[in-house]
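Hi F.,

I've been meaning to write this up properly since the lab meeting, where we talked about keeping a consistent format for the predictions we share between groups. The idea is simple: the sequence comes first, exactly as it goes in, then the structure tokens exactly as they come out, then a line or two of notes. No screenshots and no reformatting. I'm using this chain as the first example so we have something concrete to point to.
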Amino acid sequence: MGVETIKVPDVGSSDPVDVIEVSVKVGDTVAAEETILVLESDKASIEVPAPLAGTVKQLLVKVGDRVKEGDPLMEVAASGDDASPAEETTAPAEPPPQPAATEAPAAPAASADSEEREQVVPVPDLGDIDGAELIEFSVAEGDTVAAEDVLAVLESDKASLEIPAPAAGTVTALLAKVGDKLGSGDALLRLSVSATGGDETSSTQKPAASETASPAPASQPDRSAKAAEQAAPEPARVEAGSPPAQQQPTSATVHAGPAVRKLARELGVDLAGVTGSGVKGRIVKDDVHAHVKQRLAQGGGATAGTGLPTLPDIDFSRFGEVERIELNKLRKVSAANLHRSWVTVPHVTQHDDADITDLEAFRQTQNQRLKADGHKLTMLAFLTKACAVALQAFPHFNSSLENTGEALIQKHYINIGVAVDTPNGLVVPVVRDADRKGIIEIADEISALAQKARDRKLSPGDMQGGTFSISSLGGIGGTAFTPIVNWPEVAILGVSRSSMQPVWDGDSFQPRLMLPLSLSYDHRVIDGADAARFITFLSETLQDMRRALL
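Output, unedited:
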């Protein structure tokens, strides 16, 4: 058979999307509709299925690439054995009246077909949820579904909701697209349903298709395509030679949607070890969270080796009125990452105050000059530049510790993450190559990233690749705090609100604007003496930014 090039399908936007997972490799045999790779946009993850069974001949993309609709992804050589049964089963379906002996019993089937009707499947009642994002379509136009099969998955800030098929039938049209915001009653898709009851037809066809391929087209010619489609996965798996893979499934072969797979990647969970509680064993988000809780209770996962006891569940309602507020997705992921860092990284925090009296006066003066050009210098921009200079002077603060603990990965690039407080939680976009940029350029970039964060438009690439982080609470208050190291980085700078303080100059006390700095670091990589030298160097740089030019 020929070689077919699989291209990026319609992703609902003309903007490029990231390739975040390639589920196959050259030489693999894939079945039709098997997931071959996963794409991710700002709004959702999209699983790309194989349009046909065959063998992967060439991969045209890799993880990290950005692609758009129509770009080639891979080349697949179609399997000859998979194509011929389809032709055999569909050929009798087109001219059903051929055998004279079967025309009489075929009449009731034709009558049943005439009673088929189309119905629009709406979004069910979402309760107090104003709208939910459509994150996954589990079916495509032309697919045959059984009653209660999952058609689509919606996600709100509170929960994920799987939409089941109200009856057996055929999908004739998709009335929404991935990324749409839908409310109760909005049209989801159009389904062609038989008035004679689709469940019985569906259940009786499966044994007929498994026993023999020829009687099904003769007695039910109009449904032979459905029978062939339901029977096809079995021989496809056998032909691929993958019975061991069925006994020991991998994350790529389990039944789970893109949102669940993304959550599993963020939490470091192998979906092959998760038991699904959804329809037909489908893994839902609650299954992933339950798996993580079980691992933590058994001493696995992030707390392995810590010896921490399991926390008991407490019924707080015994003491008064309570309300349970579900955490949104961002806060759940942040909580898992922060917990992992706190229990695995031995934290130490070094504090110091930087005299920024002259720097603040310079900043105010320059803002007056740059106002007409639309630029605004913030203290955070100066801090970012000063940290870049300090990281050049102390390169081991710009490294990561190997998981084996035997070596450091020294990075020859300086990407500084800047924590941004948003209504949905904390995010850390990254200013890349901060050591090569001027303060005005850094200020403009931080402003743009902060706006994208507040608008929930940050891409995964905007938050990856950081080598050092800054968490500034200067606009809120406080005198000092202990920021948590953003693993796999080894240090993070916390900044509190500046204040006027009396500082002894040798003759008298002078009013000086002092900025509190808190440097948390991984004590496995950084010694206390080095941390003191780093924060002293940083304070001196902020006191006189001309040092940054040296």
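Notes:
The longest helix spans residues 329-344.
The radius of gyration is 30 Å.

If this format works for you, I'll send the rest the same way.

G.
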